Automatic annotation (TrEMBL):
Organism: Hibiscus sabdariffa
Keywords, in A-Z order: Dioxygenase, Endoplasmic reticulum, Iron, Membrane, Metal-binding, Oxidoreductase, Signal, Signal-anchor, Transmembrane, Transmembrane helix
Domain of life assignment: Eukaryota
UniProt enzyme class: oxidoreductase
Protein name, per record: procollagen-proline 4-dioxygenase
Length: 303
């Protein structure tokens, strides 16, 4: 991990709640209160550097996959997309699946999955949106798109979506791949006839029940990454179930809570400012047109 990655991401994620951890063999156990969630880094493989993408084999158990489907099955509605101008949700033929959102920590299974995602991504639980469960039937798809925003409405809530965790809840007989048309590996990723024509347009990942795909929509310096363009290929045979967790740069749970007062939003801000982080990490500390800084008072940009 290079120094730029470490410094930038350390400050973005420093507001994660303190946890105690212990390592048994290759399995990392994170404890919060009486709950203990396991994470096995040996199951993670890096797929691409541009975009930064990783696959975790067996991230969810069969029972967890089935449980999420049961929670969603009777509550599905036509999937929506975000309008680039207004920031509002709207119907579009670009996205033809059906879906619904669970509540944050809706039950113990959902809460454990959210904790596991936080451990894997090093991003706070509170920065994540609710889990969205999606269902794709024959021919349904989601055209290539970005998970970061263009509109100020969503940017003002909690900043860009920095990362996406896409969990596959079912196997798909044919089609339904996740494809990255702009990935650096699209030419080197060899594919046989088991891949759909859509998947052959870029680096692609086949949906396998229990696996989870993590990719970052922002570079380590917090600028948007065009290589993160991605889509869901049409289902050719069978059906596809998936669960998506979008994670923001800032807390989504407290989005829209900024009062405009000159305050620090982290108790460590004064120490970071003395250490020179206002200059080294201005996006996190001071903010920009897209982000509200966490340490504006200590960096003396307001009064």
């Amino acid at each position: 991990m290079d120094s730029q990655y470490f410094i930038g991401f350390f400050l973005l994620f420093i507001n994660v709640a303190l946890v105690s951890a212990e390592i048994n063999g290759s399995v990392l156990k994170m404890k919060r209160g009486t709950s203990s969630v396991q994470f096995d880094p040996t199951r993670v493989t890096q797929l691409s550097r541009h975009p930064r993408a990783f696959i975790y084999e067996g991230f969810l158990s069969n029972e967890e996959c089935d449980h999420l489907i049961v929670l969603a099955k009777d509550k599905l509605e036509k999937s929506m997309v975000v309008d680039n101008e207004s920031g509002q949700s709207t119907e579009s033929e670009v996205r033809t699946s059906s879906g619904m959102f669970l509540d944050i920590a809706q039950d113990k299974v959902v809460a454990d999955i959210e904790e596991r995602i936080s451990i894997w991504t090093f991003l706070p639980v509170e920065n994540g949106e609710s889990l969205q469960i999606l269902h794709y039937e024959y021919g349904q798809k989601y055209e290539p798109h970005f998970d970061y925003f263009y509109d100020k409405v969503n940017l003002e809530l909690a900043g860009h979506r920095i990362a996406t965790v896409l969990m596959y809840l079912s196997d798909v007989e044919s089609g339904g791949e996740t494809v990255f048309p702009n990935s650096e590996g699209k030419l080197s990723h060899s594919k046989d006839e088991s891949w759909s024509d859509c998947a052959k347009r870029g680096y692609a990942v086949k949906p396998r029940k229990g696996d989870a795909l993590l990719f970052f929509s922002l570079h380590p310096n917090a600028t948007t990454d065009p290589s993160s363009l991605h889509g869901s290929c049409p289902v050719i045979r069978g059906e596809k179930w998936s669960a998506t967790k979008w994670i923001h740069v800032q807390s989504f749970a407290n989005s829209g809570s900024h009062t405009g007062d000159c305050v620090d939003e982290n108790e460590n801000c004064p120490a970071w400012a003395i250490a020179g982080e206002c200059e080294r990490n201005p996006i996190y500390m001071v903010g920009s047109e897209e982000y509200y800084g966490y340490c504006r008072k200590s960096c003396r940009v307001c009064s």
